[in-house]
Amino acid sequence: MRNVFNFSAGPAMVAEEVLLQAQVEMLDWHGTGMSIMEVSHRGSEFKQVVEQAEADLRELMGIPKNYQVLFLAGGATAQFAMVPLNLLAVNNQADYIDTGIWSKKAIAEAKRFGDVHVAAKVDESGSLIRIPAQTVWSLREDAAYVHYTPNETIGGVEFHWVPQTGDVPLVADMSSNILSRPIDVSQYGIIYAGAQKNLGQAGITLVIVRDDLIKEPLAGTPTLYQYLVQAENKSFYNTPPTYSWYIVGLTLAWLKREGGVEAFAERNQRKAQKLYHAIDNSDGFYTNPVDPECRSRMNVPFNLKTDQLTAVFLEEAKKAGLTNLKGHKLAGGVRASIYNPMPEEGVDALVSFMKEFAGRS
Ligand SMILES: *Cc1c(COP(=O)(O)O)cnc(C)c1O
User: Fold this and answer.
1) 149 pocket-lining for ligand 1 (C-beta < 6 Å)
2) In this structure, are residues 102 and 86 in contact, taking their beta carbons and an 8 Å threshold?
3) Ligand 1 centroid – CA 26 distance (Å)
4) How far apart are CA 346 and CA 337, in angstroms?
5) Model confidence over 315-325: pLDDT tens digits?
6) What pLDDT is recorded for position 90?
7) Which letter, b or e, does each residue of 86-95 get, where b requires 16 or more Cβ atoms within 10 Å of its Cβ?
8) Which of 70, 158, 223, 326 is the most buried (most CB within 10 A)?
9) With the C-alpha atoms ordered 237, 241, 244, 250, is the resulting torsion angle positive or negative?
10) Whose CA is nearest to atom 4 of ligand 1?
11) DSSP string for 298-322
12) Which of 194, 222, 257 marks a domain boundary?
């Protein structure tokens, strides 16, 4: 056991078993006498890694056959561009739901390529931040797609329901909550997620895309940004980030051994409940700004009364082995990111510390 619980939002904690396995295999991957990072991405060794990772992912998420799984570089941010570049050729209109900072970045990028309409925006007018019900959204029936961010990593705002968009493909940036609970992939046109939050190491991005959305992109789209090219080449058009891919593979295998997505969903629910309970029962010493209906199970932001008190809290938490709790620079305050690899003991330790700190401050 390491003696620190790392609450970083991303790159985030990686399961200890995964790190240990990577360590054991570092100098000699499966008797080859080489590290997996030293072999050709087109060779038989790496092919095993790739095939196993895809099979495990398909099993964990129940991905239907008519979806391709791509492993691409460029982070979720590259998908902010790839989605419009590849989907807007048919009809140049896209609808976006704005629930926070990551949504806004996706919107700003899409605006460079087409007619982007913000069909709904997070409601910050009341005392608590909330996601407006779909009944008040202004979706366009002929939009090429609807994009949303199921979990806003910075604001700690999460959808606990799936938007219903009929025949319009639903595109989801699941960077910070992929594999945190079961979902029905068939409800989505595209799901994408950078790996460094819930899947392993930075450098690789998972894209799950329905076959019919893999088509001619907008004119001038760079080759590497075309789903068509990436799918035809099985994400091997150029050299992919092989070591990140390998770490994602180890993480997927670990998720399976630990009971799969259902088991993690229960654990994640319990972890989040413990933290929110500690916040809500602190007599206002700690506050969370989000409506309980749309609080995130992955990123729990909270505030203390003054910046000075926050600074002391962060300093002492760090001394107690609870690291990287500082809120995002745009949000301030404290944020505990508690993705799949964060054990329940880490949350218990944080809750104890919060109680103890509030008691003496
Ligand atoms: C972290 C994050 C991103 C950006 O990911 P990069 O890999 O840095 O491009 C995008 N969307 C969400 C929801 C995120 O949490």
Assistant:
1) yes
2) no
3) 28
4) 11
5) 999 999 999 99
6) 86
7) bbbbeeebbb
8) 158
9) positive
10) 76
11) SEEEEB-SSHHHHHHHHHHHHHTTE
12) 257
Query: Whose alpha carbon is nearest atom 2 of ligand 1?
Result: 175
In a domain, 293, yes or no: yes
pLDDT, residue 10, reads 96
118: which strand partners?
Answer: 96
Write the residue with the smallest CA distance to atom 6 of ligand 1: 75
What is the domain-level CATH number for residue 353?
A: 3.90.1150.10
Domain span at residue 302 reads 260-360
**225 and 285 in a common domain:** no
Question: pLDDT tens, 104-134?
Answer: 999 999 999 999 999 999 999 999 999 999 9
User: In the chain, which stretches have pLDDT less than 70?
Assistant: none
Cβ(153) to ligand 1 under 6 A? yes
| Secondary structure (DSSP) of 53-76 | HHHHHHHHHT--TTEEEEEESSHH
Helix (H, G, I), strand (E, B) or coil at 115: strand
Q: Is 102 in the pocket of ligand 1 (CB under 6 A)?
A: yes
Q: Are residues 268 and 243 in the same domain?
A: no
Q: What are the C-alpha distances in Å from 229 to residues 112, 125, 211, 221, 331? A: 22, 44, 13, 11, 38
Q: Is the CB of 159 under 6 A from ligand 1?
A: no
Distance CA 244, CA 247 (A): 5
Pairing of strands 115-121, 93-98: parallel
Q: What is the pLDDT of residue 2?
A: 85
199 and 311 assigned to the same domain: no
Q: With a 6 A CB cut-off, is 176 part of the ligand 1 pocket?
A: yes
Together in a domain, 22 and 128: yes
Report the catalytic residues: 102, 173, 197
Give burial (CB, 10 Å; 0-12/13-18/19+) of 97. Answer: buried
Amino acid at 75: G
CA 175 to ligand 1 centroid distance, Å? 6
Ligand 1 centre and the CA of 77: distance in Å? 6
Residue with the smallest CA separation from ligand 1 atom 8 is 75
What is the number of domains present in the chain? Answer: 2
Q: In angstroms, what is the span from residue 349 Cα to ligand 1's centroid?
A: 27
- Atom 10 in ligand 1: residue holding the nearest Cα: 76
Note whether residue 6 is domain-resident.
no
